[in-house]
Design a protein that fits this description.
Low-confidence stretches: 168-177
CATH class: Mainly Beta
Strand content: 35-45%
Largest sheet: 8 strands, antiparallel, barrel
Helix content: 10-25%
Structural class: mainly beta
Distance between the termini: 67 Å
Mean pLDDT: 85
CATH topology: Lipocalin
Radius of gyration: 17 Å
Order of helices and strands: EHEEEEEEEHEH
Number of domains: 1
Number of strands: 9
Length: 177
């Protein structure tokens, strides 16, 4: 009898989660700086990207409440999500509506005082997001992000950077040093 080959390894299984990270270090406000994804909607609407902020709250020492604030059609929207702990530290599960809508999330690399790189996988599709404590991060951090993007098979043609203008920083209280 022939054996079935093992299923191919998920791209996210190859991503190491940041070690030694306390979830409480992730609390607070973050700015979405960049994103790499093969999402066709993002590609078609990349010229309409708006400054986006996220507030992270640690709920029970294990899960995260994520509030995303963004402008859409000249209105401010808040999207709330709950990241549940997964099988290992730094790994989370985001459950959506329906059976096939779970998203695996990994905290890939972080310096909680300045940046965090998160990986998201839904089905076989993977995306990578770069968040900063301010809307501008150093070139070194951008280089790390771009290396991480390439390591999961994405490229610069599917990497998008978010604007740092639009009144959000005043409305949401960003202070520049």
């Amino acid at each position: 009898r022939r054996r079935r080959p093992p299923p191919p390894q998920s791209p996210l299984e190859k991503v190491a989660a940041q070690e030694g990270l306390s979830l409480h270090q992730l609390s607070g406000k973050w700015f979405l700086v960049g994103m790499a994804s093969r999402c066709s909607y993002l590609a078609e609407h990349s010229h309409q990207l708006e400054a986006t902020t996220v507030t992270v709250t640690v709920l029970d020492g294990q899960s995260l409440a994520i509030s995303t604030f963004r402008k859409l059609d000249r209105m401010c929207w808040e999207i709330r999500q709950h990241y549940l702990p997964a099988q290992a530290p730094g790994r989370f599960l985001l459950k959506g509506e329906g059976r096939c809508s779970k998203v695996d999330v990994v905290v890939g690399e972080a310096d909680p005082s300045s940046f965090i790189i998160l990986y998201y996988q839904k089905g076989r599709s993977i995306s990578v997001k770069l968040y900063g404590r301010t809307s501008l991060v150093s070139d070194t951090v951008v280089d790390k992000f771009e290396q991480r993007v390439r390591a999961v098979g994405l490229s610069e043609d599917v990497t998008y950077y978010f604007p740092t203008y639009g009144g959000w920083h005043v409305a949401l209280g960003e202070t520049r040093v």
